[in-house]
Amino acid sequence: MKIATFNINGVNGRLEALLEWLEEAEPDVVCLQELKAPQNKFPAAALEKAGYGAIWQGQKSWNGVAMLARNADPVETRRGLPGDPDDLHSRYLEAAVNGVLIACLYAPNGNPAPGPKFEYKLAWYERFLAHAEDLLATGAPVVLAGDYNIMPTDLDVYSPERWRDDALFRPEVRKVFARLMAQGWTDALRKLHPEERIYTFWDYFRNAWGRNAGLRLDHLLLSPNLVGRLQGGGIDRDVRGRDHASDHAPTWIELSDT
């Protein structure tokens, strides 16, 4: 079972690129973030033609998350994080696919920090931490996949000293990620590549792609009962280098059937 997360940065504007990658990579499940499309503008028909059932939560111009399943329909279990009914941002979607519960998340950026946006990010993560703990308590096999907007360690950023005060790398958010790990989750890509400097995002500015000045923002976390099924994983870096690409690259893992 191949599960991928991909911040598409505009699903309609990059639909051709998305369909090309789906045909090449043949992931079984894809978590998409930053759709930047209202609910009624999601390209469900084109994805269905490509062999993917989909659920999605759109939002005009901003945010938006979706989950695709190859030759299947994700069985939705939750839309939006619990704990704040006034938070209408489209940032969390959860569904069961082939016996695995998968969460698709798009965490707030939080910049500028400090400030209201950073406070919202920390509050959002408190709700996410509480829900992640509840998911673990179910005993179900769970994958938490998405754009976390956190670089957990110095290995996840090309120039750590330049990012110390950024909302993606401040001590507060790295502590949040550490608290998540302490619940019992496993960072799948880091388990597979414990000492490598790996990135999933390269900014459009300052020739970041050409200089390989990247960040690792996209993570797939596994519940303890899935760690033994982890067979492989990686980042489709070449997708970032194509014309009209997202600033993120698809990040994926493979799980054995048993």
Automatic annotation (TrEMBL):
Site positions per UniProt: Important for catalytic activity: D218
EC class (word): hydrolase
EC number assigned by the record: 3.1.11.2
Endonuclease/exonuclease/phosphatase domain location: 4-248
Site (Transition state stabilizer): N149
Family: Belongs to the DNA repair enzymes AP/ExoA family.
Name of the protein described by the UniProt record: Exodeoxyribonuclease III
Species per Swiss-Prot/TrEMBL record: Rhizobium deserti
Gene: xth
